[in-house]
Specification:
The structure is a homodimer of 239-residue chains. With 239 residues, chain A is an alpha+beta fold. Chain A has helices at 2-6, 29-34, 114-123, 125-151, 154-173, 185-192, 196-208, 225-232; strands at residues 38-42, 47-49, 57-63, 66-71, 77-83, 88-89, 100-103, 107-113, 178-180, 212-216, 219-222. Chain B binds a DNA duplex (30 and 30 nucleotides) through residues 4, 7-11, 13-14, 153-154, 184-186, 194-201, 203-204, 216-217.
DNA sequence: CGGAGTATTGACATGACTCAAGGATAGTGG
DNA sequence: CCACTATCCTTGAGTCATGTCAATACTCCG
């Protein structure tokens, strides 16, 4: 199990970390403090931290992709978010991490010790507000996902997911149509509250309906954005 | 519609606000600042604020119960949380409220203007941290609910919900077995991502299985806590 | 090539939803 | 006090989307 996790797996390694610098230039107060922080690298499937680990650091993803998730003892899993370069992870943890963070591709993160963060907050009220806003943003995203999982059909969920990724990409590098999926079907299924079979079938349905191309299973090309938006049901989409 | 909301409805008014003071004595830094704040009262079904309203205040529930929810244009609704006396609502809103807050019973809230809150944060770093923690707590609850809705069966969801309410009551007044439901079946269904029919059927099933008594539809008595916990599946429950 | 991990597809089962009817509860007005 | 009405809750029958189980195919890598 542990050994397996250290071996970078097949599909994941098709994605070579492009080390895209975070799109937001390091202007805000939090980023200033991050500059001198240590950087750690992880292979695909390695954990940055696990659920229940003492929360020692806050991290910013520099390159790669991270899957934030929680586990139930019987093996059921809930993916809570995917973190992309520029995103913070480990925020909102008090004492210990309430969710695990696992790299889905080769990943590097910048590490800010919690103790240092606390000092910064004490001396710089702006940072406290920044943190508050960052967590508020996560709360918003969590509720959006809650909505998606609770009220929408499989078709709507996956369409919404793809559109959210598309918008995320657009903000980063301007490519709206092509989406590289840095996560497996299992990850997607566990995010959307579906099974991998349903995810796979829905992908196939989209392809048959001419909404997307799917030459490789990790490369989605949106051929009919309006159709996909219609399949998503509503403008309201995750993230 | 508006008129209807002002008329307190039947079931809801069976619950007379007991005006229980918040269990936590007003020791923490946020509560200090709340003491001089104005109090506003609402009838059942009245809104404290609506989704999209400019976020002018943060509120603490003094008595009664509030349903926090979001709407989709086609009428689908997601209840995000129920606020009890002592709980804060309206936190984490930046600019405008991302969710609506509707009293489910006669309710009174203490109102703290956002502008004042901002001033406080600037002058008192502890409050910034307090806010951060409060929102983190909400984030945790939202993810717990996400888990519930996404991965669990109707039986597990409702059992977990009842146990969560039981624990909430226990913390407040020590009564573990008796639960008064300050919300309708619709509210419960929209929280758990079910239909009212399924909620009702599951209640009936619990009664037939001897897990609960249900003399009135708003009064649940847990007769077999272990059985209910088993039905909930896992120790991990919402809130 | 062979093996491990991952993805697709099919047949079938089922839990929850939908639609529809009827019962319970509380407020209202005669 | 008793209809009368508006909500709310319960129950039943039938349907459907998604899950489950099982077999096969694809991709990468040693």
């Amino acid at each position: 199990m542990l050994a397996a996790e250290l071996i970078s797996t097949n599909y994941a390694n098709r994605i070579r970390a492009k080390a895209v610098p975070p799109s937001r230039p390091a202007k805000d107060s939090l980023s200033e403090y991050l500059a001198p922080c240590a950087i750690r690298a992880f292979e695909a499937k390695e954990h940055i931290y696990r659920e229940g680990d003492p929360a020692t650091h806050v991290y910013r993803v520099e390159a790669g992709h991270v899957c934030i998730y929680r586990m139930l003892t019987d093996g059921r899993r809930q993916v809570v978010d995917f973190a992309y370069p520029g995103d913070f992870i480990g925020l909102g943890a008090m004492g210990e991490h309430a969710a695990g963070a696992q790299a889905t591709t080769r990943t590097s993160v910048r590490c800010l010790p919690i103790s240092v963060l606390r000092d910064i907050v004490r001396s710089d009220a702006r940072v406290g507000l920044k943190l508050y806003e960052a967590v508020s943003q996560e709360l918003l995203a969590a509720r959006e996902l809650l909505f998606t999982v609770s009220q929408r059909t499989a078709t709507e969920r996956l369409a919404g997911f793809l559109l959210a990724l598309s918008r995320r990409n657009a903000r980063r590098d301007g490519n709206v149509a092509e989406i590289v999926l840095p996560m497996t079907r299992v990850d997607i299924a566990d995010l959307l509250g579906l099974t991998i079979e349903t995810v796979s079938r829905t992908f196939t349905k989209f392809r048959n309906d001419g909404l997307i191309d799917l030459e490789q299973c990790i490369l989605v090309t949106i051929t009919d954005p309006e159709g996909l938006a219609a399949a998503a049901g509503e403008a309201r989409v995750i993230s």
